[in-house]
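Please produce the structure of this protein holding copper (II) ion.
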Amino acid sequence: MRRVWAPVSVVAVLAVLLVGQLTAAAQDATPGAEPGSLLRAFGYPELRVMITEGGIQAPDEVQGGPLLLVLENNLDAEAGFSIIQPPAGMAVADFLAILGPPPGAEAGAASPEAGATPPAAEPEGPPPPAFFEATWTGGAFAPPGGESAVIISLTPGEWILAGPPEAGIAPVMLTVSGAEGATPAASPGAGAGTVNARVEFYDEDGTFQFRLPERVEAGPQVWETTNTGTQPHEMFILRAPRPLTVDEVRQLLELPPDAPPPPGLPGVEEFIPLGGVAPISQDQTVLAEFAFEPGTYVAVCFMPDRETGMPHAAKGMYTVFTVGAAGEDVPPPASPVASPVAAEGVHH
Ligand SMILES: [Cu+2]
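Below is the modeled complex.
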């Protein structure tokens, strides 16, 4: 049997998410619709972060709790970051070392083959345990010159804002104030705005899945996404060029890089990345805003598995869902795991 899944480096994971987010944000730029306008209705304090030539510009300190994270990207390239807290007792520098080389590090400088293109550093097997023991609490990505918004919840302590190491943007620290360990941060979905759908990221007994609503309406909407699994998960959403089954998506995901699609299936470049949710750890909740047009969509997680380092997609963490015109009956998604959660109109 052909081996198609390789261990995924952290860099690759972040890069994949980054590319997706960007293109999507550009596609989502509907005239008159400010990014995150539905999220603003929740009324949370805004945490505004800018990315410029000088790096990430963020406040040194914010009050803990739910926050509207707004990223303003002033670069000519897409950019973004994840918000991560190293495991208790681990130095920030030691944790950053497992994410990748710092900006400015000369790749291949020590290589005996000077001048040759250095091979990408592809670690064998899974990342170190600290990768999984850290707290991932979401992140933000924006297209060149663009903006994006997401609602996250930060608990008191020291957090790292870290972009993909290969993007050359230095990580910065953010102090979240409040009594450490006093109370868990309130659930972001308990705010004044409307949650239209709930999504679970789930892993149990070797089953890795998204639990999506059985029905997704077209139009602008807020999804409350919670990781009820034990490993960090992300959700990367793409719009398919035509209806697809879960099995067809599997065939596409298993294609080796640069291989043509099987006869009758669309090419990977025909999918439109729509962004998604940056990696979140167990019990973390993020609110994300989407504006779906009717069609077929794929959700997939590329985070590495703790045991093997393979992307979760290789363990089945992908699904297909259908968006119908509002008020119109649509067939249920082909998801092998239907959501037990109410799909629409979850009001608070
Ligand atoms: Cu996952």
